[in-house]
Amino acid sequence: MMVLKRWLGAFAAVAFLAACSSTEGPTYAELTNITPEVNGSVVWESKVGSGSEGHYSRLTPAIQDDVIYAADRHGLVVAMNAANGNRIWTQRLGGRTGILNRWFRGESARISGITAAGSLLFIGSENGTITALNSDDGEVVWEQKVPGEVLAAPAVGEGRVISHLGSGYIVSLSARTGELQWTHEEEVSLLSLRGVSQPVISSGGVIFGTATGKAVVLLSATGQLAWEERLATPSGATELERLVDIDGSPLVIGGSFYMSAFNGELVSLDLRSGEAVWKQNHGAWRSPVQAGTRIALVNQDSHLLSIDRSNGIELWRNTDLFNRSLTEPAVMGTYLVSGDRFGYVHWFNRTNGRLVGRLELDEDVAIQGAVQVAGENLIVQDANGKIYAISQQAR
């Protein structure tokens, strides 16, 4: 039976919920003066194609061995030297080439995610394909069709490539050949945020969240269900209030992992049994990030939280940038660094959460994917396809 599924862009969903929650006051935080203790500066920048082509996309570069692998949604894939941004190779993926005014640029490959693992680079596409490239020269090694849109970067481990599809399927492919090994199907919701939880492969399990608010662990060898645990239950008067998507990737540390649901809870779960160690009411669609003995989490209101990993106690919360759609933060020294939908990068003091630095990249060009670390620099990709390497200096 065909299931009708309506996608909702995460930015649009958050903005709509914010507008519905109050008829007074600003819908997002305006920037105010800060006392800076860190400066950010652009070391180099490079342009990769046309970016997200006006679509919501969390496409971010993959970084491995001082090489940055980046792509635009249309199908351009490049490898760049992390030190200076110089291109090492270029590959173009996609369908038919352009003809006059129809498909002028050719059919879009609709690239949604990149994962680097050893000698191979794995590319997910909303066209329902996963492609493996040679990471040394960009040549295609194999391509496999899968039963749904690939909306997040594939997970790679234990000789497998595992992808969570928009259709609700989880698929496992051989990393070497692309051969289909197993599939697992999860229920999808009629209304969902535009995204899925990127799986994590750990200790013989495949861990991910669903659009129906559940944390799930499958056996990586067979795809059989090991256990599942509900993080959120739909409630409220409207469909938007009843959203319970888990779009963030689980954070695995030792024998536990951490995951949060939209309109739900942040939960620490035992990896083997699924038993909840603690639960806190922190709804989010971004992934939690490890910051020493703490967890950094951007909740669905774009508040940045620091949480004690052992018990879930909130240590501090910064609300200065509410509804600016902060990305998952990168951990850089004593700071947390996050981008927003207006083209700014922000620095927060890890100890107390104070906003201590700011850098504008390209005015009103959204940063949708997580800020990353490459050596001593931060790497940011914006919606127009610009890649920035940014250094930070204490004042």
Automatic annotation (TrEMBL):
One of its GO terms (cellular component) is cell outer membrane. Residues 39-96, 112-317 form the Pyrrolo-quinoline quinone repeat domain. Pfam families: PQQ_2 (PF13360). The keyword Hydrolase does not apply. Residues 1-29 form the signal peptide. It is found in: Cell outer membrane. Coiled coil: none annotated. It is a lipid-anchor. This is Outer membrane protein assembly factor BamB.
